[in-house]
Every structure is written in structure tokens, then in C-alpha cells.
Amino acid sequence: MENTILQPYFKDSTHFKDFWAKGNGKQLLEFSGTEVSFKDFEKFSPYFYHVDEIGDQVVKDVYLTQKFHEASREIEGYIRNGVSENDNVPESVKQLFLQTQKIPDWLDYNLIKSGAELCMRSNLDSLISLRDYCLIGGYDYAYLNKPLIATEALKKGAVKRLSETLDFWVNVTRYDALEIHKKGYEFAIKTRLIHSYARLSIKKHYKDWDTKNWGEPINSWDMMATYIGFSLVFMHSLHKLGNTFSDAEEKGIFHLWKYVGYILGIPENLLPNDKKQATQYFYLWTSVQPSADKDSVLLAHSLLNESLENPILKYKFQRKNLRYLHICCTWFLLDDEVCKRLQIPKVSNRKAFPRTKWIINKIYDNLVSRQARINKGNKDQMKVLSDYHNITQNSNFH
Asked: Any idea where the ER-bound oxygenase mpaB/mpaB'/Rubber oxygenase catalytic domain is (predicted)?
């Protein structure tokens, strides 16, 4: 696809113009104080056809030459012990680990700490934001979803998918998690190789893949958009729920995800440093994405119904109530047009819970110390993750 010249095909479409003129896009422009334009489109658009070739080669050299569990054990050994220039390992493995073990000049561990603290301090609002804004909002971008559909994510089920996302997010946002050989670093490396494994599988088995329109599977530009979801969109959601953050926390959240993106093999010039850059980058990317299609609706409803399927809550009425609360938050956080496209059910008093949450956050912010909130948030988030682990690792749960 080297000769393909991508155009901002959807920049004149109703869904694109409405999003940026009166929907969540307009809110992001106000939130970030950004003026957007298409002048850098040609600088970014080639990444729609760009992938992590090093990660792909590692999968070919390690995972496709032996049994999966043996390959996983080999990679875990490299993660824990490191790889040096003189080690007798495949060249691709050497390339990947020498890149990820090299600390970039721009890295500031204090900023990463501030970003991690914001993630923990925001407690369950972080998890609401990830689920009811970042994840479900992402389903509105039809082409972005194609790898999920190709890898039959719907068959795997939303509980497992949510558990995996939560596992990754929690483990990369704890104190010191991203230091070499630590848990967050391990999760980032493994996620990178999962992406490569999925991409190679799609290219081999999914004959209907439309590279010209959809880009390469799990391409670098889509990866950029996903990680802007974890930074800009996540922070905007916390803001909408009544949370405040310091300058250090704001810089920190972008710095943290910039470093995660670096470990994942996303080109550095695609990783924004602040909300102005992130909004501009996101604006350009949305111009090549059509709005929700039937797969988008199926993915959104699978996520909404996760609350009913998930046996963490014992009683049916509790699960129905949790689904109702997530629907309320989705309507509150996403704009109405996106909710209509994804066919989010209309429910009564849908603003009551999010508005109550907003008020409680304002009071809580003034009454409880920052460190106490960080400690409680970390504990509560780890409890949710533990509950998901117990459910998904139970052999009776399908």
C-alpha cells in the first residue's frame, strides 16, 4: 500500500462536522483551547499504512516457530532478565528489547508518577471514563473496529475483553510500573506482541480485509488514536464528572501514555505531549473514519450487556441496576448523536446519577487529602481487577 495516498474522505460528512461543531469534538476544542486545521494531514496520514514491523518479526521468529506457551515463556525470560547486544537470540528480539530497554532522553519519571497518581486518585471515575466514554465512544469509528470484528471479539465476549483492558490499564498506571522489567513494562511488551500476533493472523486468514479504506490492521495511526483515548479523552471524561487536576497531573497523564506508546512501538512523532497536540492529532485522524455501522452497534450493546452477563454481582436486580448506571453515564459523557448512532437505550432520569457524582466529587475533593484519595483509589481499582480475574479465570465462566 506504499503508493496509496490517503485523503480526509469524511471531512465534509455530517457526522464529522457535527462532532467538531456541536458534539464531543467541540467540547474537546474548548477543553484544550485548540484551533485545528488540515495543514499536517499529509504528515500523519502515511501512518494509516504503517505497522510495528519489529513486533511482527518477533512473532514470526518466536511464536510461530514453537508452541504458544513455550514462546510466551521465552518472551517472559527476556522481559525479566533483559537482552544485550551479545546475546544469542533472534535479531528481531534483540532489536525490540534494545529499543524498549533504552530510556528515551525525554523521559521524566516524576511526570509519570504524577500521571499514575491522577489515574489512581480518580478511583472508580477512572473506570467509568474508560468504559463509558473511551471504549464505547471508540466504537463509533467504524474502521477502527474492524480488527475486533476480524478477530471475532464478539464471540469472546465483553467480560473477557473488558477484563483484559482493565488488566493492562491498571498494571501500567501504578507506581514505578513502567521501569524496565517491572509489571507495567511487561504488560506493554506483551500487548505489543499480541497486536502483532493479531495483525499477522488477520492478514493470513481474513481475506476480505480492505487495506485501502481500513488501513493496515492495527496500524500506527489507529494506535495513536487509541492512546489519545487513554490520555485526552480520559481526562476530558474525568473533567465532565467533576474531577480537577493539577498542571503536573495533566502533563503527567500525557507523559505516561507517551512512554507506554514508545514501549509499544508507536512512532514517537505520533505521541502527543499535551492536550492541544492531542486534539489536533485526533481531529486529523477522525477525518478518515466513517461513523458507526452495524458492527459498531453490536460491539456497543455487547459492552452494555456485560453488566448482565458478569457474575461479580450476585443478584439479577443488581446487575440490571449497574447496566442502567452505565447507560446513564454513557449518555452523560458522549454526545447525543453518537449515542443515537450506537443505539444506546434511552432510560429515565439519566442525568441524575452522573450529576450526583459530579456534586460528590466537588465535595470529596475539598474534604479528603490527595494522598488519601490516591491510596483509596489504588485499593478500589485493584479490588475491581481482582474481581474480574476471579470471574474470567473460573473455568465455569464462558
From this structure: 154-352
